[in-house]
Design a protein that fits this description.
two-stranded antiparallel ribbon, 3% strand, 17 helices, 4 strands, mainly alpha
């Protein structure tokens, strides 16, 4: 473990301390996980939690499960569920703040749908939107509010002006871009429709259901089926689709890109596998397993991984492969997936900061989960892997 992950800072800004994506909260989570699996101290975890929340917690409406009140609430939930400290007083206030954030964001999203306006993907996606907040509610067992999120996601899948309801008017950068004059359709688990598909499917498999949920799952599956590409590398999907490509019925992307968690076949196949289990579709499950395996065994895709991070590097792919294999019924296929993941080339860490997504804490967290001999906190439910 690098020195920066050992001792908490004496002072932490709210922007850094309350960021799970890029800041200190990821290191607090690392120490919670280490303590939960018997490799670390709960005292160290508590010191990091205390340092990260030394400033007033940010509960603005745009806060997400990776920054601000929802992120802090999630970390305290995992710590309280697995450790000796209850954190009852701060959790009560944070839970109320999170519920207020979710309800305000749901109200804004439903108003937007009522007006027939296209969404920004930050409204619905996993990293910054309501899918990520729904993942937190699912982990916390807050089923009533989770059902409201699921009902919104059902509405999101209904067509708007001839395109899928999740078609955004923005570019993949999240900004207006002349290269995407009609917006785009996003295939990434982190930013696109596979994230909502995964949450809808996991919740349905759990028994948390709302009217239209299976229909919504079906609409997303139809779209992914329509844009599935097949070639020497097996099944794959574009990263993003322009309006011109959608109108022409074909993508300009000629081959699969890196096989990452955030974008690429492993993330999409994970969502498809969840959907297959939710709907009892064994053929789709086999298709998803084959796609995941082909992506890892394709030398061109494997060598396109250029770092060791969770978001778009080997740590995320290996953790996704472990969770995928654990729920794969065919033992031989599960073993091949695990072997392919372990044989991926090691490009080095090349991490940016201490965060979960692209930082050293995320890499260390994935390694903890991959080598643990007992169950941990289940932190990767936030990545919709379980």
């Amino acid at each position: 473990m690098t020195a920066e992950l050992l001792a908490p800072p004496t002072e932490a800004s709210a922007q850094w301390g309350q960021s799970l994506a890029k800041g200190g909260l990821a290191t607090a989570l690392l120490h919670i996980e280490r303590a939960a699996i018997g490799r670390g101290s709960w005292d160290t975890a508590h010191e990091w939690i205390t340092a990260c929340v030394s400033q007033p917690v940010n509960s603005f409406t745009g806060a997400s499960v990776f920054y601000g009140a929802p992120a802090v609430a999630h970390i305290l939930h995992l710590a309280a569920s697995h450790g000796p400290c209850a954190y009852q007083q701060p959790r009560t206030g944070l839970n109320a703040a999170v519920e207020d954030i979710v309800r305000k964001r749901l109200a804004a999203a439903n108003r937007r749908i009522d007006c027939g306006v296209r969404p920004a993907f930050g409204e619905f996606d996993l990293l910054g939107g309501l899918t990520g907040l729904g993942a937190h509610l699912r982990a916390r067992g807050q089923q009533e509010l989770l059902r409201e999120v699921l009902s919104y996601l059902v509405r999101l899948t209904l067509p708007v002006h001839g395109r899928s309801g999740w078609w955004t008017h923005l570019a993949p950068s999240g900004e207006q871009d002349d290269r995407y004059p009609g917006g785009h359709g996003n295939f990434g688990l982190a930013h696109g429709i596979p994230g909502p598909l995964a949450l809808l499917s996991l919740a349905y498999f759990d028994g948390t259901c709302v009217p239209g949920q299976l229909d919504a799952i079906g609409r997303i599956l139809d779209w992914l089926d329509a844009w599935q590409q097949n070639g020497a590398a097996g099944a794959w999907w574009p990263e993003a689709l322009t309006a011109a490509e959608a109108d022409q019925g074909r993508t300009r992307q000629s081959k699969p890109l890196r096989p990452s968690w955030c974008y690429g076949t492993p993330g999409i196949a994970t969502a498809l596998h969840h959907a297959a289990r939710a709907t009892g579709d064994t053929d789709r499950a086999r298709t998803a397993e084959a796609a995941f395996l082909d992506a890892l065994e394709d030398p061109d895709q494997a060598h396109s991984l250029i770092d060791g991070t969770v978001c778009h590097g080997t740590a995320g792919v290996r953790l996704a492969a472990r969770r995928f294999a654990e729920r794969t019924d065919d033992h031989a296929t599960a073993m091949r997936i695990l072997a392919a993941a372990s044989n991926l080339p090691d490009p080095g860490t090349d991490a940016t900061g201490q965060g979960l997504l692209e930082g050293t804490a995320g890499i260390a967290l994935a390694r903890c989960s991959l080598t643990a001999e007992c169950p941990g906190t289940g932190w990767d439910a936030l990545l919709l892997l379980v």
